[in-house]
Amino acid sequence: MSATTLNTGHIGLNVTDLSRSIDFYRDIFGLGLIGAQTEGEHRYAFLGQDGDIVVTLWQQSDGAFNADRPGLHHLSFQAPDIETVRRAEAALKDAGVDLFYDGVVPHGEGAGSGGLFFTDPDGIRLEIYAPSGADTAPAPTAGAPTCGFF
Q1: Could you report the per-residue pLDDT of 5-36, keeping only the tens digit for each?
Q2: Contact 119, 142 (CB under 8 A)
Q3: Which residues of 87-120 are buried (b: 16+ CB within 10 A; e: fewer)?
Q4: Cys staple from 45: which of 36, 80, 103, 111, with CB 3.0 to 4.6 Å?
């Protein structure tokens, strides 16, 4: 099988509070609830857009995301343009979410691509970016990609 025939299907995330995470991913990313089991021992939700699942949430964790362990580094969502990223910035600020950097920043010095870097309620590192238009601010980390969360 050729790697060119594969696309990312969806991302599954372990969460500690399913209801809180459903609200967060719906409010910040505009994802719709496609299906869920919110009662009983096995709780989960499928969120997406246009009928396609983008994120699955599984309430089967305690504690918070640990960036010091092997596994997910961060989850990134590409927006069609920088204006969409700026709207997401307003939604994040309205929700009281802290950003890693001061607003929209480029992926590196001289890069046009860039965006916002933050965490979900369980500490999972997230990014919303656009391919261009972020070159109006300096890169916050010299000599390393911004999405490295250094």
Answers
A1: 888 899 999 999 999 999 999 999 999 999 99
A2: no
A3: ebbeebeeeebeebbeebbbbbeebebbbbbbbb
A4: 36
CB 118 within 8 A of CB 100: yes
Closest listed residue to residue 137, CA positions, set 74, 89, 94, 91: 89
Estimate the crossing angle of helix 18-29 against helix 82-94, to 10 degrees. Answer: 140
Nearest Cα neighbor of 58 from 48, 73, 47, 43 is: 43
User: At residue 2, does pLDDT exceed 70?
Assistant: no
Q: Please report, to the nearest 10 degrees, the dihedral formed by the alpha carbons of residues 82, 86, 87, 88 taken in order.
A: 100
* 134 DSSP 8-state letter: -
**Domains of the chain: residue spans and CATH:** 1-60 (3.10.180.10), 74-140 (3.10.180.10)
Structure tokens at 135: 């070159």
- Reported pTM: 0.91
11-15 and 105-106 as β-strands: parallel, antiparallel, unpaired?
A: unpaired
